[in-house]
Design goal:
Number of domains of chain A: 2
Number of domains of chain B: 2
Distance between the termini of chain B: 34 Å
Number of strands of chain B: 10
Largest sheet of chain A: none
Chains: A mainly alpha (277), B alpha/beta (275), C mainly alpha (279)
Number of helices of chain A: 12
Oligomer: heterotrimer
CATH architecture of the largest domain in chain B: 3-Layer(aba) Sandwich
Helix content of chain A: over 70%
Order of helices and strands of chain A: HHHHHHHHHHHH
Structural class of chain A: mainly alpha
Distance between the termini of chain A: 36 Å
Number of strands of chain A: 0
Largest interface: A-C, 69 and 75 residues
Shape of chain B: globular
Radius of gyration of chain B: 19 Å
Order of helices and strands of chain B: EEEHHEEHEHHHHEHEHEEHHHH
Chain lengths: 277, 275, 279
């Protein structure tokens, strides 16, 4: 029991208490800027959540996510919109980020030569492994079998290949194997987020978001998907991309911080393992 | 009952060299010690170490010993340190809690944290407002204050804790001469009447001249000069170390350089002229 | 943890001490609806949201819509509701179109517009979903227009929420405006360096790191100093924080909160399990 209390308390040091409001504000301001000013079809409102999760732990990350959504929904002046019900999703994202933090996913792993090429090849192989079942799925070839319309599978395959190329490029250019792990963490987080969000979206908002990706929802419904599956389809398109981009942004930011600064956070040590002081 | 640094050495976590290197210092109740030195000489580190917040809050390793009223700072919790030793850092805006709606509530933040009875909290807030003559700011929004006002509020917030010792890192940096004099007078009163031990880092050597009993010159983490204010601040070597001598010393130097007879020019007259 | 300093008492005494606290600090809220305890207003908001989303059919959302509009009129904030309602337009448009025309499995076609067929089921679902979203938006508006952040947080803390949670929420809300200004500055600076906010998607994506980077770095650089400043003011002291502001509460409101909380749960459960289907 004491170990559990210690684990909880250890994530909420005064430094973390100071970091969390800053992270929440980053979520809200950056999310608003990207969605409204840059007008990109991604959310990018989880940078702060993932940052806290990786630096402090799962509970701190989850709380950051949940509070970000509730504050963005209910606070005076800031409040409005429809983000509140997705506080659950934000909490899960923070929780996962804490797990990645414990597993030292975001630690730099400098490598050179053969290791890099091997990692880049690994990324390519994973992409191929993901793509083949998609293309071999009977629903892809035979329209009479249920599931998603065929173009969805083509799109999924294309996206997987593009992602693999980008990740491989990233690993090679920065000479850092962590790129692979960060990408995997981002994609997994995105997939989980999509599954958690779909029922919330379906129950509260009829499966739509009000954003440009609703065109995707429309197309899926046109193809015969029901509310939840269309919502899930939209989520599986937006969320893995969004969370992977977010994860890479967090990774780039963390790699730019000095080890001295990072070490002061509860999970900071796990980020600085291979770095010279 | 003093703050005593004996051979204090401090290195920030992950840093390659010591920020403080074998500092001996004693701050007694009612005494005022000034600290001067070039930038990055270790003055701010000295403040953090003397107050115990380094290494208790700021990660790093401490060599030698630092004790407050006989207890080693490394054995104390942050709130115990805060009750005994009030510290004011350089950037006033970062010192404010950011959650208080009025200056009154900002000043009440510290005493409330300690769980003091409400009557005591109110009394301390009002006293601090009085001491720094900012009662007219009591109902204002702390986020909308000018730099100088914010600095006075931050200082008042520390005074509200009624600590036995005050450690101040450039407490008048954003104040005009009138504000500076006000703070100087308030600090002098605190030292004289409340027996508060005060350690103050300042560039305004004129202020140090009037306020302090002794001045310490820090260079590369070491104390290189220590003595009465007039002596240390009159040292021509100050300029070489990046510290500007106080007007008093400069006027004397100018008189001497001009070949005039300076015997009739008393210290009191110079202090008057300089302020 | 035994008290370490005999002169520091952890007994708080709002009763007799409150008389000395200036009125501009006590800020007891007055006026219709605002004079309710903040927690009551929050429970009303949450219960409304639960019923609006959880009670399927027309009754739930319509009831919430009517109640919220009435309370807004009573509180005098009816005019300010506009902004919240307008903000729901993008999602409402999507809901109406996608559900009316593309509702899966519906066959009761009402009208055809080009290749799209509006179905009765679809239109019903579309209208209900729209009502739900608008009802929810209004319930949020009612809360955020009538409740000052500090009132809510002070009340929460008095109920035992802990200074750290209330600090996080209060500080976050306070930091957003400053950070928004900083972002605008960064966007302007980056635009001068060629950041394209109107160009292709690829270029806009490349603009993210130059935007997020300085913002996050700038914010993180303050963490250390703010941590030291908080500790210097006894933030981590174990004593129960002195109560200075008391938001009035009474038995009737307590009963109302319980009623609303339980009632909304029962209503949602009844609707989900189909026990008590309302139109």
């Amino acid at each position: 029991m004491n170990a559990l209390k210690g684990w909880v308390a250890g994530q909420f040091t005064t430094r973390v208490i100071v970091l969390m409001p800053i992270a929440i504000a980053i979520n809200i301001v950056l999310g608003y800027t990207v969605q409204t000013i840059l007008k990109l079809p991604i959310y990018l409102d989880s940078i702060g959540t993932i940052l806290v999760g990786v630096l402090a732990g799962p509970l701190a990350g989850a709380l950051t996510g949940i509070l970000s959504n509730l504050i963005w929904q209910y606070a005076p002046v800031i409040g409005g919109g429809t983000i509140g019900p997705f506080a659950i999703t934000a909490g899960v994202i923070g929780l996962l980020a804490g797990i990645w933090g414990q597993l030292a996913v975001y630690r730099s792993r400098p490598a050179s030569g053969t290791q890099l090429i091997l990692a880049a090849i690994a990324a390519g192989v994973i992409a191929v492994v993901v793509v083949i079942p998609i293309l071999n799925n009977p629903a892809y070839t035979d329209p009479n079998v249920g599931g998603y319309p065929s173009w969805v599978y083509t799109a999924a395959a294309v996206i997987a290949v593009v992602v693999a190329v980008v990740v491989a490029g990233f690993i090679y250019v920065r000479r850092d194997l962590a790129g692979l792990w960060v990408a995997v963490a981002g994609v997994l987080t995105g997939i989980v987020a999509a599954f958690v969000s779909a029922p919330i979206s379906a129950i509260a908002f009829g499966g739509v978001t009000g954003g440009g990706t609703d065109l995707l929802v429309a197309a899926l419904r046109q193809g015969g998907s029901d509310v939840i599956h269309a919502s899930l389809g939209q989520g599986l398109f937006s969320d893995p991309i969004d969370k992977t981009i977010t994860s890479f942004v967090v990774f780039i930011i963390l790699s730019g911080l000095s080890p001295r600064l990072l070490a002061r956070f509860p999970l900071g040590e796990r980020l600085t393992g291979n770095r010279a002081a | 009952m003093t703050i005593r640094l004996a051979g204090a050495t401090y290195r920030y976590a992950g840093a390659r060299s010591n920020a403080l290197d074998g500092v001996d210092l004693e701050l007694a109740p009612g005494s005022v010690i000034g600290v001067v030195g070039a930038n990055e000489a270790g003055k701010s580190t000295l403040c953090l170490v003397a107050s115990g917040l380094a290494p208790v809050v700021v990660a790093g390793s401490l060599g030698g010993s630092v004790t407050i009223d006989g207890r080693k700072t490394i054995t104390m919790r942050p709130h115990e340190l805060a009750q005994r030793c009030g510290i004011l850092l350089q950037n006033p805006e970062a010192q404010l809690s950011g959650t208080a709606v009025t200056v009154f509530e900002e000043l009440a933040f510290g005493p409330r944290n300690l769980g003091l009875p409400l009557g005591s909290v109110v009394e301390r807030v009002e006293a601090s407002l009085e001491t720094l003559a900012i009662a007219h700011l009591a109902a204002r929004d702390p986020a909308r204050l000018s730099g100088g006002q914010a600095q006075l509020v931050a200082l008042a917030a520390i005074l509200a804790l009624r600590p036995a010792y005050l450690i101040l890192d450039e407490p008048t940096s954003q104040l005009d001469p009138q504000g500076t004099r006000l703070v100087g007078d308030a600090l002098r009163r605190l030292a004289a009447e409340n027996r508060t031990g005060i350690l103050v880092v300042e560039h305004k050597t004129n202020l140090l001249d009037r306020l302090t009993d002794s001045v310490v010159l820090i260079d590369e983490g070491r104390v290189v000069r220590e003595g009465p204010a007039a002596e240390v601040l009159g040292d021509p070597a100050l300029a070489a170390l990046g510290v500007e001598p106080p007007p008093r010393a400069r006027i004397r130097a100018a008189i001497a350089a001009a070949g005039l007879d300076g015997t009739g020019v008393t210290d009191a007259l110079l202090l008057e002229l300089a302020s | 943890m035994p008290p370490d300093d005999a002169s520091v008492s952890s007994i708080t005494d709002p009763g007799s001490g409150t008389a000395h606290v200036p009125a501009y600090v006590l800020r007891v809220p007055t006026g219709p609806y605002r004079s309710l305890n903040p927690l009551t207003r929050f429970v009303i908001a949450i219960a409304s949201a639960a019923v609006a989303f959880g009670v399927r059919g027309w009754t739930g959302p319509l009831a919430v819509l009517a109640l919220t509009a009435a309370l807004a009129l009573y509180a005098g904030v009816a005019r300010s509701l506009r902004r919240f309602v307008l903000a729901t337009i993008p999602i409402v448009v999507s809901i109406l179109f996608i559900n009316a025309f593309l509702y899966p499995g519906a066959t009761d076609v009402l009208a055809r517009i080009g290749p799209f067929a509006a179905t009765g089921t679809g239109v019903t679902v579309a209208l209900q979903a729209t009502l739900r979203v608008v009802a929810f938006a209004l319930s949020v508006a009612l809360f955020s227009l009538t409740t000052a952040t500090d009132d809510f947080l002070a009340d929460l803390e008095n109920r035992g929420a802990g200074r750290r949670l209330t600090f996080i929420i209060g500080s976050a809300i306070g930091t957003v405006p400053a950070m928004a200004t900083r972002v605008t500055e960064i966007v302007e600076a980056q635009r001068a360096r060629g950041l394209d906010t109107e160009g292709s998607v690829r270029r806009r994506i490349r603009g993210i790191v130059p935007l997020a980077g300085p913002m996050v770095f700038g914010a993180l650089s303050e963490v250390e100093e703010r941590t030291v400043a908080l500790e210097a003011r006894g933030f981590s002291a174990p004593a129960r924080r002195t109560v200075m502001r008391v938001l009035p509460d009474d038995g009737a409101q307590r009963a109302l909160r319980w009623l609303l909380g339980l009632g909304s749960l029962v209503a949602v459960a009844a609707s989900i399990t189909g026990r008590f289907p309302l139109p």
